[in-house]
Amino acid sequence: MNVFLKSIKLFLIRSQEYWNLIWARAKWRNQNKHNLTVPGRLFPFKKVKVGKGTYGTLNVISYGNIEENLSIGNYCSIAGNVVFILSGEHSYDHLSTYPFQKKYMVTEMLNRYQKDRLSLMMMFGLAMDVLSCQVSKSEEGL
Hints:
- By secondary structure, this protein is of the alpha/beta class.
- The chain is built from four helices and five strands, in the order αβββββααα.
- The protein folds into two domains: about 1-90, no CATH class; about 90-140.
């Protein structure tokens, strides 16, 4: 009996999500008669602007940041499996934009990298010098 009630509850939740998406699609189409886009999932419509003649499914993931937005130009084609992720908040002054600290709690490694960034760059430059010397020497032998 408990499994039956859980499956009914899940069915009702999925049904409500489905009808919310149907309603959102109708609302989106009413507001965007100048393009042929359709929402693939629920997202805040005020944060997305789509130009004339653009077509495709909008799969937008929003994290609720005040400054996030998406602007798509005129006469664009959006492929079927594209997902627009708003407000990723990646740091651009690190070796990678992947959020290592949030995902793997590797603050010690990142702190060490910040301290040794200059020495890392010098080592990379030295390696490039060595490689260029080896290439020029091998070309001389030809």
